[in-house]
Every structure is written in C-alpha cells, then in structure tokens.
Specification:
- This protein has two domains: 11-161 and 201-227 and 286-299, NAD(P)-binding Rossmann-like Domain (Rossmann fold), CATH 3.40.50.720; 162-200 and 228-285 and 300-318, NAD(P)-binding Rossmann-like Domain (Rossmann fold), CATH 3.40.50.720.
- The strands form three sheets. It has a seven-stranded parallel beta sheet, with helices on both faces.
- It has 14 helices and 13 strands.
- It is globular and about 60 Å long.
- The protein is of the alpha/beta class.
- The structure holds NADP nicotinamide-adenine-dinucleotide phosphate.
- Residues 16-22, 41-44, 64-66, 86-91, 122, 138, 161, 163-164, 167 line the site of NADP nicotinamide-adenine-dinucleotide phosphate.
- NADP nicotinamide-adenine-dinucleotide phosphate (NAP) is lined by residues 16-22, 41-44, 64-66, 86-91, 122, 138, 161, 163-164, 167.
- It comes from Mycena albidolilacea.
- This is NAD(P)-binding protein.
- Residues 11-307 form the NmrA-like domain.
Length: 318
Amino acid sequence: MTITQDSSAPLVVVVGVTGNQGGSVVKALSESDKSYRIRGLTRDTTKPTARALAAAGVQLVAVALTSENAAAAREAFKAADIVFVVTNYWEHLDVNREVAEGKMLIDAAKAVGIGLFIWSGLESIINVSHGKYPNVHHFNGKGEITEYGRQSGIPFVNVQSGWYAVNFWKLDGMKPTRVEDGTYVLALPVGPQTLLPVIDTPNDYGLFVREAIESPEFGPGSEVLTSGEDITIGDMISQLAEITGKKIVYARISDGDFMTATGLPHRIALEVLESLKYHEECGYYAGKTTADSRRHLARPTRTWSDFVRSTDWSSVLV
Ligand SMILES: NC(=O)c1ccc[n+]([C@@H]2O[C@H](COP(=O)([O-])OP(=O)(O)OC[C@H]3O[C@@H](n4cnc5c(N)ncnc54)[C@H](OP(=O)(O)O)[C@@H]3O)[C@@H](O)[C@H]2O)c1
C-alpha cells in the first residue's frame, strides 16, 4: 500500500470511490511505487466499502454530488492535484441529470484550479451512428460531458470504460439461460462476431487511470480506451463453455425477443438493444483500437478467460 498522508504526495480525489471504477482507481494507485494521498467521495461514509477504504488510508468525505450541491463539490475538490470522475446513469436513468452533474463537476474542478481531470467517458452513439441509434443515453450523455470537458480548458483526459465482463454474469437478457435439455443458451440480437472491449472493471479499470497519471504518453487532451482484451461474443461463449464444462450455445434472436428477455421497461430495453446494434455495426470505441492504451500499463490485465476462472458461475450455470 502506498496511500500516504504525507502532504508532499499528490492529492487524488476519487468520485464514486465505493463503486467499481472508483474502487479500482484506489486499488491501482495503492499498487503504485509512487505515493498518493487519496480523498474518496461517497454519500455514506459508514457503509462497509467506505469503512474498508478508510482503514486502508483513504480520506473519506461525505457529499452528494448533485447539481444543487456545486459548492460542496468545489469544497470536496479543494487542494486536489488530480480528480477522477465517474457518473452513474443507471442509478436514476435520467440523461439530463447525468449531463448536468458531469458539467457541474467539471466547473467545480475548473473553479479550484485542478491539475488533471480524469473523466470516465463513453462515445456519443447518436453522433457516431449519424443518428441511426439515438436512444443510447448512457453513452450519448457521457459523450456530451466529454465535449464540455474538452472545451472547458481544464487539463482533461478521457479514460473510456470498456464493456464490463460481469455483464454476462449478472444482467438479465445478457447471461446464459438454461433450456429444457439442461444445456444453456446465450441469446442476443447481434452476430457472434461482434467484438467487445471486455474488462474486469474492479481489477483493471484503475490501471488505465494510473497510466493516464503516470505515463507521459497520456497527457491532458488524450484519450485512453480500456479493455482487458478485445474479444468476440462467440469466442467468449466458447471459452465460457470450455472452462466451466457446460454446454452453452450462442443464438441470434430478434430485437423484440431480446427486449422482452431483458425484463426492462421498453425505453430502457430499447437503449440496451441499440447499444448492442451499435457495437456490432460501428464498434464499441467507434472503430478505434485499444492497443495503444494498453502499452504502458503497470501490470497485465485480466482476459475474459481469467475473469471466467476467477468467478463463481454456480448461480448462472446451475
Ligand atoms: N456496465 C458496463 O458495461 C459499463 C461500461 C462502461 C461504462 N459504464 C458506466 O459506469 C457507470 C457506473 O460506474 P460504476 O460501475 O463504478 O458504478 P457503481 O459501482 O454502481 O458505483 C457508483 C458510485 O458512484 C457514487 N455516486 C453515485 N451517485 C452519487 C452522487 N450523487 N454523489 C456522490 N456519489 C455518487 C456511488 O457512491 P455512494 O453510493 O457510496 O454514495 C458509488 O461509489 C455508469 O454510468 C455506466 O454507464 C458501465
């Protein structure tokens, strides 16, 4: 652990510190041979994740980062050298709120004169697809925040998050389901050749943030595209079957059947459907390669097969 309280070490403020991405940032910085002070922001400093971080040396600050709370955000960012920001669309499903909060956090960082703002963005699918897929709000909103950050004049790096490996383990409509003969099927509305930048987020996302901080290759204005590896859905299913010893096949299903299988309200099911179609047609990162972003990492990332081996599949493949 190299989390320090020494005031000569850079102070990194981590938004979403109790979550997948923010927690991974703390993990990666604590693995570094450079020392960092870390201030983690959460709405609840008493929850077990927050307590564990405090025990590891993270200074926990209780704050709700909403648009009405801009003064509290500025206070939380005070004296920071580096800020890491992630917004959580899935908690409220309101793109206007996500964009307003993201912009507010950029303004707060600018007001206190931050040295480096690291943002967890995503592509604007409506722009990349030239309007064909307008409903993927959790991408489009983050794309709008990225644009605002780039225009703001603050030192800004966009560390885009890849496709969470855990999605195929936990999301209804995206995990294998058992069929009558006791085998399994993973059914999606895209072809098995669809390529995804898969990442074991808690283990590896922060490595790329550490790279953005420590590697001269990734200064302000740059973009880092994260993934443990880029792999087709078909290969993911073959490897899952091989490692777990279960018979699992891939099936391409209709858009309507997929939307029903998600169990989500129509608006959200449409959002998930369009995101998959976009990944198939345009590529998750709009055709950009992740190889350069992996070049200066401090340690290897986990592959999909590493993730499969380190995960208990008994609740999915019963
Ligand atoms: N699933 C995927 O494949 C995928 C891929 C790329 C990007 N993403 C994006 O990842 C984002 C979620 O990131 P995650 O997985 O790290 O989320 P997470 O594990 O659910 O954690 C969310 C974090 O945000 C904090 N937070 C949320 N609202 C807050 C507020 N108003 N004030 C202060 N803190 C707040 C939470 O803190 P407390 O609860 O402790 O207050 C928590 O630490 C989503 O926007 C999603 O679109 C997902």
